[in-house]
From TrEMBL:
GO MF annotation: an example: oxidoreductase activity
Name recorded for this polypeptide: SDR family oxidoreductase
Keywords per UniProt: Lipid metabolism, NAD, Oxidoreductase, Steroid metabolism
Record-linked InterPro entries: NAD(P)-bd_dom_sf, Sc_DH/Rdtase_CS, SDR_fam
Length: 255
């Protein structure tokens, strides 16, 4: 098993990429601490993983609250004595609103989950990893962190920042035994897509512009596709991969 004995924190495990990654990491021998806001989803995931012989410890919390974003890291270390991998995956769509239509409320909501939560959790994880002398940070960015028209202003800005933060960590702490890499998915079949989570009040103009870009897509990926890339980054096969923003979009942005 590729993650045998490793202690891993994953945020945003309710569904989609986070859930698929938690299941895969547990199957590969990791002790997974999964964070999400919805208790019922955490309970279901715990039951499913443990039925297959895996280890999953739920942590109910909201990454947009500093104490909780940091708290899941301290909880993991208190329970298992170390932190090998921290995968900051929680995220929220922004409804495709271009800047002229972005309210302060929307901006703060998207930044709180997509950027602030990553910052708070990563900062605490790196502090722990510095004391250990090793560690591995993975962030979920997006092709929206590399291109301008994939989503609205708030989402694109947050994901660009996540990639910059990840690269900065890789540069500053690479010689301290800490790696940091960002995953940049394109379209993935998740709640955002299948249930329209985050798109309930989308800007008509934003959606029209985004559709122009989606017309060049080669289709949707599955959450398991992202989980497999996360597994590569979490394991020893990627030991010399550091500071990368890895695109996984089926060739969409090759257009």
């Amino acid at each position: 098993m590729r993650l045998d004995g490793k202690v891993v924190v994953i945020t945003g495990v309710s569904s989609g990429m986070g859930r698929a990654t938690a299941e895969l990491f547990a199957a590969e021998g990791a002790k997974v601490i999964g964070m999400a806001r919805r208790k019922e989803m955490l309970d279901t995931l715990k039951k499913d993983i443990e039925a297959k012989g895996g280890v999953f410890v739920p942590y109910q919390g909201d990454v947009s609250i500093e104490e909780q974003a940091e708290g899941v890291i301290d909880f993991a270390v208190a329970k298992f004595g170390k932190l090998d991998v921290a995968f900051f995956n929680a995220g929220l769509a922004d409804g495709n609103y271009p800047i002229a239509e972005v309210t302060d409320e929307l901006w703060k909501k998207i930044m709180g989950i997509n950027l602030d939560g990553v910052f708070w959790g990563t900062r605490r994880a790196v502090q722990i990893m510095l004391d250990q002398g090793y560690g591995n940070i993975i962030t979920t960015a997006s092709v929206g962190g590399l291109h301008g028209g994939v989503a609205g202003t708030a989402y694109v800005t947050a994901k660009h920042a996540v990639i910059g933060m990840t690269k900065n960590i890789a540069y500053y702490y690479g010689r301290k035994g800490i790696r940091a890499n960002a995953i940049c998915p394109g379209g993935v079949r998740s709640e955002i897509v299948t249930k329209g989570v985050g798109f309930e009040h989308s800007s008509q103009y934003g959606n029209e512009m985004q559709k122009l870009g989606l017309d060049t897509s080669n289709g949707m990926g599955e959450p398991e596709d992202i989980a497999n890339l996360a597994l590569f980054l979490a394991g020893e096969d990627s030991k010399f991969v550091n500071g990368a923003a890895l695109v996984i979009d089926g060739g969409w942005t090759a257009y």
